[in-house]
Amino acid sequence: MALREMALDQMNGGSFDVLVVGGGINGAVSAAVLAGRGASVALVDRGDFGGFTSQESSNLVWGGFKYLEGYEFFLVRKLCVSRNRLIKAYPDNIKPIGFLATLDKTSPFPPWLAALGSLAYWAIGSFRTHWPRYLSAKKIESIEPVVDTSGARGGIEYYDAYLPDNDSRFVFSFIRSAMDVGATAANYVELVGAERTDHGWRATLRDVANGGAEITCQARVIVNAAGPFVDALNEDLGPRTSHRIVYSKGIHLVVPRLTEHERVLAFFDDTGRLFYVIPMGRRSVIGTTDTRVDSPYTEATDEDRDFLLAQINARLDLDTPLSPADVIADRSGVRPLVVKREGGDQTDVDWTKLSRKHEVEVDGGRRVITLFGGKLTDCLNIGEEVAEAVEDLGVPLEDDTGGWYGEPAPATRAEFYRQARLMKLDDLRHKPQVEPLSDRLWRRYGRRAFQMLDAIRNDPAMGEDIMKSADYLRVELHLAARTEMVTKLEDFLRRRSKITQVIPEEEVRTSEGLREVAEILFADRADEKLIEYFGELPAGP
Ligand SMILES: Cc1cc2nc3c(=O)[nH]c(=O)nc-3n(C[C@H](O)[C@H](O)[C@H](O)COP(=O)(O)OP(=O)(O)OC[C@H]3O[C@@H](n4cnc5c(N)ncnc54)[C@H](O)[C@@H]3O)c2cc1C
Predict the structure, then answer these.
(1) Is any atom of ligand 1 closer than 6 Å to the C-beta of 229?
(2) Which of 297, 305, 343, 382 is the most exposed, fewest CB within 10 Å of its CB?
(3) d(CA 297, CA 299)
(4) What does the pLDDT look like over 305-352, one tens digit per residue?
(5) Whole-angstrom Cα distance, residue 216 to residue 205?
């Protein structure tokens, strides 16, 4: 039976300690910690895992240097500690990266003050990153010629970290590790109703991918991890909370790579707000914006695009300025920001200055835990707080040994690289501009990458690139089909991989190998899934 059918089968009539609603970063990390510490856990998301806010981030794992502007020292310290833990636990998936900030006449700070700030930031982060440095305009010009330094007063370089793959794949890694230790998780399953019982809840779940069939399961506790929808869900579940969510929209534009160096370029835009150029493989990502909105459903408008393009063109020395035609993909989402329920509608505050903190609220009577706000960077803290809250509600957990997060041990990694070297895995790579295969497979799959080595040894065709336009081996598709719950083609193209973020849609549609990808993932439903995604059967090359 396929992974998703098996999960639905287990959920139907099942009884769990905890039902997690929402498979973004907050829900994923909750499932991982709870299952890792011995609780029986079910998780549902009405879309794909990591398919809402958590796929629209800047992919940065950071303490938030810019939050020092709002004197949020405690939050920055907490995020820096979390960043440091994540860098240590995920040496291949979370990479330290330099941020080169160029300051011009319109910047709110002179470079010397920014340099002092970067020293303070380094100290707040316990000096765990590379040390920051002050840069003259001349120095910036020499190390990053793409930056237009004609109006620059100088700059700084400080360090944080980023996800070289993508945010939603990182989210999925928590879902996968929860499933590895017994959690039952299903995408495209919506919580549509919940009734109180003597021992907790009876939840009604709808399979939205396949005709809307309904099933029920029981849970002692519900974790509301619905991100921008937490308040709406709580209206149904009934807990009283002292916080609520407001929305701040942010967009990013993915464009051809703007600098060959693996560093983030930071600038102040005309409104005095920081924005970035962030590496994403062979592309650069420009963003983000920060606009108050009233709906969680957003898209990048022409106005948003024009604003970001104008800002970046004014700050880079490009032979041809970027135009909308250069935009390969865009990303748009809302930050779910936490505010006090009492205390006005917050219309009087500067929206961009609202705190990025999170709150975990527990309604012991109703046995609901609500997760407000948060960040990818904050995920370990949120996981630990959820576990504590679940224990407080009487669900016993095993001791926290930290085994629920992180990459496999260095000895396991060394053994993978040894085996990959012996079978000359990296020689299978034909595209010189992409990273070594051993790095890619280990980073993306961890322990599961051993199965791939076996499969390639048994059948060399498994080591061939499957899609002409993207870097994916045939064996990766087979593993994804078995273990990554790819329910729609978009789950693979946008979230398990980042293909549609870095390759123009037309190229994907006409890519050699696309049909085989669909056949491996969906067998006899391949045509249906291709039509679902493209609106018609792609003609192919
Ligand atoms: C533009 C932007 C840039 C950002 N950049 C960064 C960054 O660089 N670094 C960082 O650390 N953070 C960043 N963040 C913040 C971070 O991305 C978010 O805080 C985080 O992804 C929110 O995760 P979540 O799990 O709370 O919500 P979501 O990811 O939205 O997950 C909630 C899930 O609940 C599901 N759901 C809702 N209702 C139901 C229901 N009834 N039944 C089943 N499922 C349901 C939804 O389908 C959704 O998938 C950024 C955010 C934005 C918008």
Answers:
(1) yes
(2) 343
(3) 7
(4) 999 999 999 999 999 999 999 999 999 999 999 999 886 555 566 667
(5) 6
Give me the numbers of helices (H) and strands (E) for the chain, helices first please: 18, 18
Q: Is the CB of 241 under 6 A from ligand 1?
A: no
Q: Ligand 1 pocket, 395 CB below 6 A?
A: no
Residue 269 near residue 287 (C-beta atoms within 8 A): no
Cα R_g (the chain), whole angstroms: 23
At residue 358, the 3 state secondary structure works out as strand
Residue 349 neighbours by CB under 8 Å, 6+ apart: none
Is residue 275 lining ligand 1, measured as CB closer than 6 Å?
no
**CB atoms near residue 307 (< 10 Å):** 18
Q: Is the CB of 264 under 6 A from ligand 1?
A: no
Residue 64 Cβ < 6 Å to ligand 1: no
- Within 10 angstroms of residue 410's Cβ, the number of other Cβ atoms is 9
Residues 341, 234: Cα–Cα separation, whole Å: 13
Whether 353 has a pLDDT exceeding 80, the answer reads: no
Counting from 1 in the atom list of ligand 1, the atom nearest the Cα of 334 is: 53
Predicted pLDDT of residue 344: 57
* Angstrom distance (rounded) from CA 333 to CA 293: 10
What residues contact residue 129 under an 8 Å CB cut-off, 6+ apart? 84, 96, 122, 158, 159, 160, 161
Q: Cα 246 from chain centroid?
A: 20
Is residue 360 lining ligand 1, measured as CB closer than 6 Å? Answer: no
For residue 31, report the distance from its CA to the centre of ligand 1, in Å. 15
User: How far is 182 from 370, CA to CA, in rounded Å?
Assistant: 23
Q: What is the DSSP letter of 69?
A: G
Across 493-507, average pLDDT:
95
Q: How far does the centroid of ligand 1 lie from the alpha carbon of residue 375, in Å?
A: 8
- Binding site membership of 25 for ligand 1 (Cβ less than 6 Å): yes
